[in-house]
Amino acid sequence: MWSEEQVEVGGVRLHVRTSTATLPDDAPVALLLHGWPQDGSCWEPVATRLETAGYRVVAPDLKGFGRSDAPRRGYDAATLADEISQLIRWATPGKALLVGHDWGGALALATAFRHPGRVQALVTASSPFRQIDLTAAWHIPLFNVPLAPQLVFKIAGTPLTKATIRYASENTEVFDDEAYARYGAAVRAAPRGWLAYYRTLSRGAVIDWSIRRIRRRASFLRPPDGPHRLRVPTTVVWGGRDRVTPVHLATRVAHDLDAELEVIEDVGHFVHEEAPQAFTDAVLRLATRVDFDEDGGVAGPRPERTRTLGDDHAARPEPR
User: Fold this and answer.
1) Is residue 70 part of a domain?
2) Averaged in consecutive runs of 10 residues, what is the pLDDT profile of the chain (320 residues)?
3) Is residue 319 part of a domain?
4) Structural domain of residue 107, as residue ranges?
5) H helices of the chain, where?
6) Domains contained in the chain, number
């Protein structure tokens, strides 16, 4: 399934998995970015389906996770986006279909805003934008506590990872002991690295959220309530039973990004693993309706803005 190697981008080495399917040299590239608490291997069910559709798939361990470098600095949005852009340049001379879950969605979005010329289309999954529900994502303040989270995950990363995934998932049967061990190793390797996402990016999001709360209460401070003009065709995917990033955030995220929204019912936070067929279908719907000309233009009418997939979304996810 995978060919694995170390790729240097911006002075940082990323552990990168590339699909080994025999495809034409000009096959389109799909770059898949995982979230917490996982590594690039979480994309295997989706990658297999994208390969069948003709995509060459690239799935790195994000900086600070797994077998990628975990430097002390460089977790601001601009630096991370520049690194992902360089990874796209390594994978293809053209543009990539960019897909991200959780923190990977935040990185994919930052890349699309900063380097739209490298991105053909964007799919984010269970990834908040401009708002955080701290009543559900209560782990974010905890991860901003100095030293303690780093020590705890270094010692007990695997059982904590298992507990997190079981809490956040609706379909826990897709995760076996080997998956828990693999993801546990990914977060145990260098907790200081992935904690930097919470201590850098999430602090900025909380500050932005607080400012917007104040502006909503003071009409003279209120900015225009319009979407951010993202120059890349985008779909937002969400699990209907997500306990960590609740689905009530999804409509606002899609509005703010001027994106299509697809809600997959009966799945939790890890939508790409809990319902890989439905998730892949959402990715391919975006890809097939976009006619990529030299300017990255979109041809054809826009479909309905929101799609909800219920029990017919796919056969129940198969255990790995």
Assistant:
1) yes
2) 93 95 91 97 97 96 96 92 97 96 96 95 93 70 78 90 95 96 94 87 58 53 53 95 94 92 97 98 92 43 59 44
3) no
4) 2-313
5) 44-52, 77-91, 103-114, 139-143, 148-168, 177-188, 191-196, 202-217, 248-257, 271-274, 276-289
6) 1
